[in-house]
Amino acid sequence: MSTILSLQNISKRYGAVQALSGVSFDIPTSSVFGVLGPNGSGKTTLLGIVTDVLKADAGSFTLMGAPPSARERRKIGTLLETPNFYHYLSGYRNLQIVANIKQQSEADIPRVLELAGLTARQHSAFKTYSLGMKQRLAIAAAMLGDPQVLILDEPANGLDPVGIAEVRNLIRQLALSGKTIIMASHLLDEVEKVCTHVAILRKGQLLGSGPVNAVLARDNFIEIGSADSHALAQLIRQHPAFVELLPAGNGVLQVTFKDAVDPAALNNWCAQQGVWLSHLQMSRKSLETAFLELTNN
Ligand SMILES: Nc1ncnc2c1ncn2[C@@H]1O[C@H](COP(=O)(O)OP(=O)(O)OP(=O)(O)O)[C@@H](O)[C@H]1O
């Protein structure tokens, strides 16, 4: 996977508040990248820096391997705060106004309306839209000019479950078409559903980043099974890192170890003692658990 955006040692201070301290991570091309953190952890500041709304005190970032020129930066579509759409004008007219402000061709409007699922309602007044439609129109506005990267600050904020699902589907659809989506969010459930990668911030410091699966992996908890589950249970109790065992039905055992266990090494260890595993699965914790573990530490 290639890197589309790479942050190196970004720091930013507002007076006495250190909003970001030396934050570095890479965002893979075509990922849906979630920036997570409690209130005040620096998410908005970070997005502001990569979209050039704010200037970092230190550090730098590269877009597609190079410091971004003004032209390159136009390849980033942004939705940092809810745009002020005109309530009495239609979705289409509002996009015309945005296209003119952003000096982008109006010819792109039907495409973004279609992507956002608003074609049928494009001539209705904005004030008649549901909250989900309003947010989809805002994302459509950010997509004008077909940017490769979209940056969204809390795209699901304030929406009801239907609106959240609509925005989620739109983000997934954009990711499928190869766009990279970077979103700040505090809705962990939502991030877990839609993001492929995450970075977790607390008080301006990066606590961890990487593929969602790696962040969520519980590396001390493994499900194993074997044709002779009785022999497996006896054997696994002898493992030097064994803590406890729970039968999960169908001969599968859920085993907790003292610390991280490499699945390949565990497989090997069992085989050496004559027990062949027919099932081996790392388990996942919820993003909420991972987030609380990281942010409470
Ligand atoms: N213009 C500013 N002047 C002074 N302090 C600021 C300013 N903008 C942000 N801060 C402070 O910097 C820190 C990081 O704020 P930021 O908005 O980036 O966090 P956030 O993670 O986006 O939070 P939230 O989820 O509440 O939006 C906070 O302590 C905030 O109070």
From TrEMBL:
InterPro entries: AAA+_ATPase, ABC_transporter-like_ATP-bd, ABC_transporter-like_CS, P-loop_NTPase. The keyword Nucleotide-binding applies. GO terms for molecular function: ATP binding. The keyword Repeat does not apply. Keywords: ATP-binding, Nucleotide-binding, Transport. Residues 5-228 form the ABC transporter domain. It comes from the Bacteria. It holds the Pfam family ABC_tran. Belongs to the ABC transporter superfamily. This is ABC transporter ATP-binding protein.
